[in-house]
Amino acid sequence: MSFNETFFQRAQITTPGGVNSPVRAFRSVGGTPRFIKKAEGAYIWDADDKQYIDYIGSWGPAILGHAHPEVIAAVQHAVTQGLSFGAPTEAEILMAEEICKLVPSIEQVRLVSSGTEATMSALRLARGATKRDKIIKFEGCYHGHADSLLVKAGSGLLTFGNPTSSGVPADFTKHTLVLDYNDCAQLESAFQQFGSEIACVIVEPVAGNMNLIKATEAFLQTMRRLCSEHGSILIFDEVMCGFRVALGGAQALFGITPDLTALGKVIGGGLPVAAFGGKAEIMAHLAPLGGVYQAGTLSGNPVAVAAGLTTLKLIQAPDFYTQLSQQTQKLVDGFNRIGTELNIDFCADAIGGMFGIYFCKEVPTSFEQVMQANGELFKRFFHAMLDHGIYLAPSAYEAGFVSACHFDHVIETTINAARESLRQITC
Ligand code: PLP
């Protein structure tokens, strides 16, 4: 038995499903999850010492590639100064200043430790600031596992065919209106009906939890206008796409200014840092200034902030995003070429350092279209790629991530593996 198999058996004795986050369990693709030993650059190694090119990147944070020497050095230095103080530090000021500089819609920001905390807190803040209860979210968008957001929430939940988690009282979600992504008409009618009761609209401006689906500009502009007209708060959940699709996030790319933004993943450089922030007048409702409570023992943790600050510095290198986008585009162009070459319904799309692969004729633009893609073929493709040493997300409903270490030879190896894999599974 391989180490991966042995570990998986052992893990299931003491950990539910053997994993600490559900998608890691390979349930939707079958087989044994790889237990990872180490990671460097574009590569990871599993417990059996097999090397893979990694397109998960810790589900987004590893934008510089794994174990960037400057990030490691910053963490090593921070560790020597103490692990956690539960008191403010200068590094937290620097981190907040950096975020506010890079994302101009954020005038004030609060650091937390996970994307879930960021969106959950932003939601509470929006409700507290507007004194309204209703919120709008979109089917297939995942905003972490806060109760009122666990409605038709994409990826892990889609994978399990579980539109809503059990354990969430209906009372907690009765104020959550779920609309179709990229559907402007539905937004208009929801606001027509409930406008004065809607605290906020929360959206992934580039959706990455129902595979990659880009929002149309009209969709984002419509929600911006409707929120302004009705005094509702627009929350961009950029936990995944922030600092991933462009330096200033999706809001910079689309030129749309949200009232609040949730960030995570990249801003922690692989350690637990997330944040939410926006207009100072809204942020003033937060404790200790205002009545909306929010707190965290490890918020702004000095070791995590050291990793985050160094990452934010490194992604500002000239042409960083041009190169990241080029490499991602090369990968996607390669996938699309193979689809045509082999005459199969297989295509791909990219934005910045994020990509999607789809077993259908054309790149989907809605949740409904994503659900029509061929999930069975994806499973076989996933395993064939794994055999070829390419580590994709173990779900047809997750976006993929390219890092600054995915150089040309890495992309080429991946494209060749994809050609072989597709030949294997379709012949
Ligand atoms: N929001 C989005 C868009 C995400 O993709 C995720 C996680 O994948 C979250 C929120 C939750 O973040 P975390 O897993 O750090 O709680």
From TrEMBL:
Record field: catalytic activity: (S)-4-amino-5-oxopentanoate = 5-aminolevulinate
Instruction: One Pfam family, please name it.
Output: Aminotran_3
Pathway where it operates: Porphyrin-containing compound metabolism; protoporphyrin-IX biosynthesis; 5-aminolevulinate from L-glutamyl-tRNA(Glu): step 2/2
Which PROSITE patterns has this protein been placed in?
AA_TRANSFER_CLASS_3
Where located?
A: Cytoplasm
Please name the SUPFAM superfamilies in this protein's record: PLP-dependent transferases (SSF53383)
Write the record's keywords in alphabetical order, separated by commas.
Cytoplasm, Isomerase, Porphyrin biosynthesis, Pyridoxal phosphate
Q: Which cofactor does it need?
A: pyridoxal 5'-phosphate
- This entry's Enzyme Commission designation comes to 5.4.3.8
Where does the record place the modification N6-(pyridoxal phosphate)lysine?
A: K265
Looking at the record's lineage, which domain of life comes first? Bacteria
Task: List the molecular function annotations (GO) for this entry.
Answer: glutamate-1-semialdehyde 2,1-aminomutase activity
Chief location: cytoplasm
Q: Which family does it belong to?
A: Belongs to the class-III pyridoxal-phosphate-dependent aminotransferase family. HemL subfamily.
- Identify the NCBIfam families for this entry: hemL, PRK00062.1
PANTHER family (UniProt xref) = GLUTAMATE-1-SEMIALDEHYDE 2,1-AMINOMUTASE, GLUTAMATE-1-SEMIALDEHYDE 2,1-AMINOMUTASE 1, CHLOROPLASTIC-RELATED
Question: What protein am I looking at?
Answer: Glutamate-1-semialdehyde 2,1-aminomutase
Q: Which organism is it from?
A: Undibacterium flavidum
Its ancestry begins with: Bacteria, Pseudomonadati, Pseudomonadota, Betaproteobacteria, Burkholderiales
